[in-house]
Automatic annotation (TrEMBL):
SUPFAM superfamilies: Families 57/38 glycoside transferase middle domain, Galactose mutarotase-like, Glycoside hydrolase/deacetylase. Keywords: Glycosidase, Hydrolase, Metal-binding. Belongs to the glycosyl hydrolase 38 family. GO terms for molecular function: alpha-mannosidase activity; carbohydrate binding; metal ion binding. It comes from Macrostomum lignano. This is Alpha-mann_mid domain-containing protein.
Length: 1045
């Protein structure tokens, strides 16, 4: 390669090249002004007047009825935001296009491509007149605009079937941008948004190679600089073919042996490049828009793969592929065909890329079950890798669940977002809480949207945390979220940079080639045990309380229904028919566990969808089980039944219309209410009295609590455990905090918010105010009423519309005599940028770790901020309990669908009850009523957890807490279709093994299983709950006769 003489001033040479290809500087005379040798404007643009056509294609009547279409000019405005619009574009005459396509076939010509350009600042999908999808186009977040390349094969397909002399394209446009329609990527959308239709034209476009610029101080870097300078000179002389040849010579020489010693290329890091287009199933757009995003993105990818036979592409989320199969079956068929060639690869094995903190264990297993089932059915194989690049932390139970789903490999990159500590590995063995192991990999480029730039390759090498242990790493490239995935420029750079001295090697790869390479180095890798905590987005455990409660209730309802179906309570016909409906209900539940939906970080339109889906799930649960949910209190007790799907006896207090009587349900039973009432329990009533000091005392045989006039629990004495021990170090009280993160409003609770602590009862700022002092109500509970004024959101900080009413109830309930139970009602919540917590200072000394329940197990977490890893994790997710235990005494906080919390200063438990971010959903929990239930339960401590009674008491109380609070979900009216007479006897008896074996085994779920021969099978899900190793000697299930003529 001959280089023209240049001065040795690096900066001027570099900036000369930069300006020559800039879209912003000297555009009238740089390469952009020269790259199109021929342009032709569209002959006409028409807009479909009606917005009713939301489907994937138009019917014949719409295509042919001219009165339905209106001619439009440039600058035409259309909206509102989220609306769908169709456009019809008449292309230049056929002779012009024939000449353009002929030129495109001339090998080596600069005029090598024909492009259709549509710039409307919307996302659009281009169709031929026959309805064939060509590809999607969108405006990217960096301001650049995509074009659609037309191939010679498209030529005949562009003719209108109704007028052969016309060449047409049709566009379906969504009035939104790549990241929604808000003023920034995490704000609510602007409902007044409109899009503008500027020029639409055909152009000849050549993309100049991007000059290698990363290796500034090396020979290779200077050669790239000089080569780029020479190319500028050639282009100024219109010697474009010579410029391409010069670039080809440079990269050909780079792949030779002249640039580095022989054999050293193989010693460089190998990046396994995979095309990627991460599409959030919902986020700043709703589910309907995602269905169109997948078609726009994957049609563009398929078109690119036809030109690049070595290109590979990975796609996760069975739900999105299922939508594509329904909406665009031709695209789906092409994907299946390429999957057989190991090029367009389904990965991940899950229904959606879900949140892994909040769903229950059965839901996580459902993600794997339905995802793997879909991939097996339609692609002939299951996924060996769990692919979850973007979610807000990873449960320590996942390795075990992955192994159950047949997966051995795991890929993500989200921990690179952590604010404080840098995770020490990029490739490692991840060990779950039970000891299960999987091989984990974080692509060292810390992104799944790489652009195949030299700087990204260099960063992947320098940032790699496992240098010397393995040479293999992943490299995911492409625009996500509707940005069409990989672009032709990325493929060009990938080819040219495949073996560039000074940079890692780059090769088209697959998940299997990546992990096979890592497996060969597995012995060199370190391990990590337990959860993978993300030091960011911890507010998602609390944001949008309504969707978290909806998810919890749907999980509970499905648990009850599957219990009934599995044990044959329904007649056989109903059971068979119900399984398909059950799948539908599970699909909807799993869909709404997507990692931006269940965490509460989507726009309001998404939660309107979720509310509708939850109602559908509950309707399915009510409809197909041969029993109807009680809708009125007038039903006779002989028509009612109650269900206990747990392995323990469960006490319930009936609603007001049945006298608030206490009944006891046997384990795993369905009981008629009239028969239960014959065995009505009559425990001693708790006492409640008001002392002269305005202190209310609640007392039963196990506990004695004192509540002051501000509603704070100032004392809790355990009478039956600890010989009268005081359980509290300080009052239990409601607190609030100013909650304004750095950027991610719905996502983050920042550590500095702790500095703004104030109590609702006694507040020096005047925002918290006692309205009604502690009083005793008719149920022998203590109730206090407060008001909380919002932090100012407008110029009028005293706006009465921003006042929240909080009713705080403390009780000793007959059904939970060992617990002090709390119910905090907010009617409504109107405190903007405010975090409401309850503070529970526990008198448990010397505790350095707290036990928190997660899915089907528990983890221990530090209670003090000794290290940066400790204090960075200032908010954690837990499920039904959070426990602090000494050797012989413990105090557990039990809760219903309250996930966010922390333990500070060794023993102060804080539960995060409500937040009120204003974006992306400005109405997240705002102006809504909420009821939050939690309880304190003393127990026998660490030693007691291995004991039968203590272990059963803690775990059983936690497991049953939600069911006792939502008894209406399992309260049924019997019908003539009921299969068996229901009694107070258990349908299944779960026999705990003999002494010396585990007393902490939980029967979590019983569900029906489809079988090939249609015989009745059911699955029983068991887990060990408190991390105590025992051998299970026996586990016996005794079933009664369930079939009655």
């Amino acid at each position: 390669m001959e280089l023209q003489d240049v001065h040795k001033h690096w900066r001027t040479t570099y900036e000369r090249i930069e300006k020559f290809i800039s879209p912003h500087y000297f555009c009238d005379s740089n390469l952009l002004s020269r790259q199109t040798s021929n342009r032709a404007a569209a002959l006409s643009i028409q807009h479909l007047k009606s917005q009713e056509f939301l489907g994937s294609w138009l019917d014949k009547k719409t295509l042919t009825t001219e009165s339905l279409w209106e001619d439009i000019d440039l600058g035409f405005k259309f909206g509102p935001v989220w609306s769908i619009h169709w456009f019809r574009v008449q292309l230049p005459k056929a002779d012009w296009l024939k000449e353009a396509f002929a030129a495109s076939k001339q090998s080596g010509s600069i005029n090598s491509e024909v492009h259709f350009q549509w710039n409307s600042d919307t996302e659009a999908l281009i169709f031929s007149p026959t309805g064939r999808i060509i590809q999607g186009v969108t405006s990217l977040h960096d301001g650049t605009r995509e074009t659609a390349e037309l191939s010679p094969d498209d030529q005949n397909d562009l003719q209108s079937p109704f007028n052969e002399s016309q060449l047409m394209l049709y566009l379906q446009c969504s009035v939104s941008e790549l990241f929604g329609a808000g003023p920034s990527c995490v704000r609510p959308p602007d409902p007044k948004g409109r899009a503008i239709c500027p020029n639409a034209n055909s152009s000849i476009l050549h993309l100049l190679m991007e000059i290698a610029k990363e290796l500034k101080e090396t020979d290779q870097g200077h050669r790239a600089l000089y080569c780029g300078n020479s190319i500028v000179n050639l282009c100024l002389q219109c010697r474009y073919d010579d410029a391409i040849k010069l670039a080809d010579e440079f990269f050909k020489a780079s792949r030779g042996t002249t640039m580095e010693p022989a054999g050293t290329s193989k010693n460089r890091m190998l990046l396994h490049a995979m095309g990627h287009c991460h599409i959030d199933t919902a986020w700043l757009w709703d589910y309907a828009e995602t269905r169109r995003k997948t078609a726009r993105s994957w049609s563009s990818t398929l078109r690119l793969m036809r030109k690049h036979p070595k290109m590979t592409f990975v796609v996760s989320q069975a739900q999105q592929l299922d939508w594509l199969k329904t909406d665009y079956p031709n695209l789906f068929s092409e994907i299946v065909s390429l999957a057989k060639q190991d090029r367009f690869l389904p990965v991940g094995g899950c229904w959606v890329e879900m949140d892994t903190n909040l769903p229950c264990c059965e839901s996580l297993l459902g993600q794997f079950h339905y995802g793997q089932k879909f991939f097996q059915r339609h692609f002939g194989r299951k996924c060996p890798e769990f692919w979850l690049p973007d979610t807000f932390g990873y449960s320590g139970q996942l390795p075990q669940l992955m192994r159950h789903a047949g997966m051995s490999w795991f890929l993500t990159q989200k921990l690179s977002w952590s604010l404080v500590n840098k995770f020490p590995h990029h490739s490692f063995v991840w060990r779950g809480i039970d000891g299960s192991e999987v091989l984990a990999h974080f692509p060292p480029g810390d992104s799944y949207n790489m652009q195949v730039l030299p700087s990204e390759l260099a960063f992947s090498a320098s940032n790699h945390r496992d240098k010397g242990r393995t040479q293999h790493a992943g490299f995911l490239y492409g625009h996500g979220d509707g940005g069409q995935g990989p672009g032709p420029d990325m493929l060009d750079r990938l080819e040219r940079l495949s073996d560039c001295p000074g940079l890692p090697r780059l090769s088209h790869g697959t998940p299997r080639t990546l992990f096979t390479g890592l497996e060969s180095d597995r012995a060199n890798l370190h391990s990590w045990t337990g959860e993978l905590y993300l030091e960011l987005h911890n507010g998602t455990y609390t944001t949008h309380r309504s969707i978290k409660l909806g998810n919890f209730r749907c999980e509970s309802a499905l648990r009850v229904v599957e219990f009934l179906l599995a044990l044959g309570v329904l007649d056989e016909t109903a059971t068979v028919e119900s399984l398909d409906s059950l799948d539908t209900a599970w699909h909807l539940l799993l869909l709404n566990q997507f990692h931006d939906v269940l965490p509460g970080s989507s726009i309001g339109r998404v939660y309107a969808d979720s509310a509708r889906h939850y109602n559908q799930i509950l309707s399915v649960c009510s409809r197909f089980r041969s029993m109807d949910e009680v809708s009125t209190p007038a039903a006779s007790v002989s028509e009612l039944a109650l269900v206990n799907p747990t392995q323990w006896s469960m006490s319930l207090t009936l609603p007001e219309d049945h006298g608030r009587r206490l009944v006891s349900l046997p384990p795993l039973s369905v009981c008629r209410l009239d028969q239960l009432l014959l065995k009505e329990a009559t425990p001693p009533e708790p006492t409640a009295k008001l002392l002269d000091s305005k202190v209310v005392v609640l007392e039963n045989e196990h506990l004695k609590a004192e509540i002051d006039s501000f509603g704070r629990v100032v004392s809790l004495i355990s009478k039956s455990i600890g010989a009268g021990r005081e359980c509290l170090l300080a009052p239990v009280q409601l607190t609030y905090y100013h909650d304004m993160p750095l950027f991610w409003d719905a996502w983050d609770i920042m550590d500095y918010s702790w500095e703004t602590r104030a109590t609702v009862a006694e507040d020096a700022t005047g925002k918290g105010r006692l309205i009604e002092s502690c009083r005793i109500d008719s149920s022998h509970s203590c109730q206090t009423v407060y008001e909380l004024t919002s932090y100012p959101t407008s110029s009028d900080a005293t706006d009465s519309n921003l006042v929240s009413r909080i009713e705080h109830q403390v009780a000793l309930l007959p059904e939970r005599p060992h617990c002090l139970t709390f119910c905090t009602r907010v009617t409504p919540w109107r405190a903007a940028h405010t975090l409401l917590r309850v503070e529970l200072p526990c008198n448990v000394r010397g505790v350095t770790r707290a036990s928190a329940e997660i899915q089907a197990g528990r983890v221990d977490r530090p209670t003090r901020g000794n290290t940066s890893w400790d204090w960075a994790a200032h908010e954690h997710c837990s499920h039904r309990y959070l426990d602090l235990s000494e050797a012989n005494f413990g105090l557990a906080t039990i809760k219903q669908a309250i996930y966010g919390g922390s333990v500070r200063d060794g023993s102060v438990v804080n539960l995060s009850l409500l937040r009120s971010p204003r974006g992306p959903d400005a109405e997240a929990d705002f102006n809504s009523e909420h009821c939050l239930r939690y309880a304190l339960m003393p127990h026998q401590g660490l030693a007691g957890l291995t004991d039968s009674s203590s272990c059963r008491s803690l775990v059983a109380t936690a497991c049953q807490f939600g069911y006792q609070s939502d008894v209406e979900l399992t309260r049924l009216r019997l019908t003539d279709r009921t299969a068996v007479p229901l009694t107070t006897s258990p349908l299944v008896t779960f026999e705990q093994p003999a002494p010396g074996s585990s007393q902490s085994v939980v029967l979590d779920w019983i569900k029906p299983v489809r079988s090939v021969d249609q015989s009745k099978w059911f699955l029983v899900r068991l887990y060990e709950s408190v991390a105590v190793s025992y051998r299970i000697v026996a586990c016996e299930f005794i079933c009664q006769e369930l079939v009655v003529d």
